């Protein structure tokens, strides 16, 4: 694959290092994603020089190597690989690489020993060892009382290494550039072989999705106790607690341990109240917003694809953790006689959807549906674990919640929401989120489900799938986040529900539209439903995971 590092950062499985190009300035930065998207990620701006003069260069990027070569002279180049998770290697020939640090006040660089410089980066609580293995390296870093005024590093005609660590450097031997290159190529071949199949029509999307899922994983560090798949190493440098489930879903068949670790991240950081964090990274856990409970929905699918997930100890861990989650909704998110509520659009994952424009809190039919399905799943898990009494209790809870949903949030025109302390009906009914009760299609009367499906096809289906806001709505926006654009996880939920509950033809049609959408818009965070253009973050893992899942299902159907 020819990688465009403006759209997809160059990185590798397990590494916090990445390299990307700014879209507005074309500047290239070596970056580090420790600390999530609130931490500064830029380490160094990279340029190529010849005789001290900046030169234009072409960028040749593949999944495992990133080469910058002078325009018209491919013999003069700098190449970057990441052969080990914490090692970035640079090889130069005929040109000089200049690295200018993106430093702040206390960031400091000093000479560690001949040919080695240690760089302390305060905001990231990180250190780098910059080593000259075979070439020429010069450093200009004038000291000014509490730090360097600036840091300018030049590398020429040789092999150089930048290694990251938290506390102390461990002396080591580094592999040759060629050996490192062969190693990372082998690792990537193994990933692709295990995770994907070839397709002449969809190969560009397969290549993107395989690389994004592989390169967006980081190794255990700080809060993260196992390998974790970030949503992106471009902008969205965290693990969110419903995004993670879609990534786990795709990993489940061939990488069950890695899939389970994506769920375990949130079990390990579950609050005493029962809630999961909104997001986690290696340094920070945020409980500001609480995403809908979909762990059991995903776990049932994982059990269907791999017996690894049927292990009683793992099932018990999911079961016990989910019981705490639903208790959180009962105790902290439910007013007497009402359904559980959201306190912000971000709680739902649909941040700015029209359902939330009238205020908070909001009783929403999607949240009720997620909880009903969770109770039904817990009842099945309870039977498997020999907890018969609890199975009955969970089924009764699902039954009563379903009755309340239909009484409070459904009328002859479909589902709606309620807002505020007086639980007034919300006027806006043009958001796709109000159609998510398809998730419990097995409980809905056929006439209700038929009404939902007809509404979806007539009012939301576009060239590339279901828009998140009716295109006819005055609130629809071309690049409106949840006010129109298509999103992968939501598409998955609708496709799965439609194909599971008697509407396979429509479900497969929407699935195939999404597959084709990726050929136009790549693996973006979301997409224009009419043109297919990729929007916002253009290197997103849950998009990649959903694409690969859909592709596998299409192969089976065909």
From TrEMBL:
Keyword Nucleus: no
Sorted UniProt keywords: Glycosidase, Hydrolase
GO MF annotation list: Glc3Man9GlcNAc2 oligosaccharide glucosidase activity
GO terms (BP aspect): oligosaccharide metabolic process; protein N-linked glycosylation
Pfam families with a match to the protein in the record: MGH1-like_GH
Protein family (similarity comment): Belongs to the glycosyl hydrolase 63 family.
SUPFAM superfamilies named in the record: Six-hairpin glycosidases (SSF48208)
Protein name: Mannosylglycerate hydrolase MGH1-like glycoside hydrolase domain-containing protein
Lineage: Bacteria, Bacillati, Bacillota, Bacilli, Bacillales
Source organism of this protein record: Neobacillus vireti LMG 21834
Domain spans labelled Mannosylglycerate hydrolase MGH1-like glycoside hydrolase: 238-543
């Amino acid at each position: 694959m020819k990688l465009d590092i403006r759209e997809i950062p160059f990185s590798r499985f397990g590494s916090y290092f990445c390299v990307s190009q700014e879209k507005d300035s074309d500047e290239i930065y070596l970056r580090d994603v420790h600390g999530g998207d609130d931490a500064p990620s830029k380490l160094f701006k990279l340029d190529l020089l010849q005789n001290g003069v900046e030169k234009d260069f072409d960028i040749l990027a593949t999944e495992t190597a990133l080469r910058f070569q002078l325009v018209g002279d491919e013999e003069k180049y700098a190449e970057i690989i990441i052969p080990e998770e914490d090692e970035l290697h640079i090889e130069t020939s005929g040109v000089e690489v200049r690295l200018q640090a993106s430093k702040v006040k206390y960031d400091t660089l000093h000479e560690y020993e001949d040919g080695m410089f240690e760089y302390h980066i305060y905001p990231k609580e990180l250190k780098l060892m910059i080593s000259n293995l075979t070439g020429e390296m010069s450093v200009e870093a004038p000291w000014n009382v509490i730090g360097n005024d600036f840091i300018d590093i030049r590398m020429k005609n040789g092999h150089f290494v930048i290694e990251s660590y938290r506390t102390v450097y461990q002396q080591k031997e580094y592999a040759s550039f060629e050996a490192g290159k062969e190693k990372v190529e082998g690792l990537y071949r193994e990933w692709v072989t295990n995770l994907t199949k070839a397709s002449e029509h969809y190969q560009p999307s397969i290549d993107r999705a395989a690389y994004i899922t592989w390169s967006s994983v980081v190794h255990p560090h700080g809060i993260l106790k196992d390998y974790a798949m970030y949503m992106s190493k471009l902008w969205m440098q965290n693990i969110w607690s419903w995004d993670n489930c879609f990534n786990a879903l795709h990993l489940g068949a061939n990488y069950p341990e890695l899939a389970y670790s994506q769920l375990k991240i949130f079990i390990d950081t579950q609050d005493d109240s029962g809630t999961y964090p909104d997001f986690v990274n290696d340094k920070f856990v945020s409980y500001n917003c609480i995403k809908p409970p979909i762990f059991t929905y995903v776990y049932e699918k994982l059990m269907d694809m791999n017996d690894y997930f049927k292990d009683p100890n793992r099932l018990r861990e999911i079961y016990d953790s989910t019981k705490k989650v639903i208790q959180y909704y009962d105790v902290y998110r439910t007013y007497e006689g009402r359904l559980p509520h959201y306190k912000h659009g971000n709680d739902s994952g649909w941040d700015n959807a029209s359902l939330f424009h009238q205020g908070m809190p909001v009783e929403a039919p999607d949240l009720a549906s997620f909880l009903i399905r969770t109770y039904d799943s817990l009842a099945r898990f309870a039977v498997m674990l020999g907890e018969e009494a609890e199975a009955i209790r969970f089924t009764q809870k699902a039954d009563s919640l379903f009755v309340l949903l239909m009484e409070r949030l459904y009328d002859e025109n479909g589902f709606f929401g309620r807002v505020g302390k007086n639980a007034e009906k919300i006027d806006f009914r043009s958001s796709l989120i109000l159609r998510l009760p398809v998730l419990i299609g097995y409980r809905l009367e056929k006439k209700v489900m038929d009404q939902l499906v007809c509404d979806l096809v007539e009012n939301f289906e576009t060239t590339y799938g279901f828009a998140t806001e009716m295109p006819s709505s005055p609130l629809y926006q071309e690049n409106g986040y949840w006010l129109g654009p298509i999103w992968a996880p939501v598409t998955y939920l609708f496709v799965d529900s439609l194909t599971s509950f008697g509407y396979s033809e429509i479900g497969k049609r929407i699935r195939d539209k999404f597959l084709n959408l990726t050929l136009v818009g790549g693996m973006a965070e979301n997409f224009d439903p009419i043109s297919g253009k990729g929007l916002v973050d253009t290197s997103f893992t849950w998009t990649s995971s959903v694409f690969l899942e859909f592709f596998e299902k299409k192969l089976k159907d065909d």
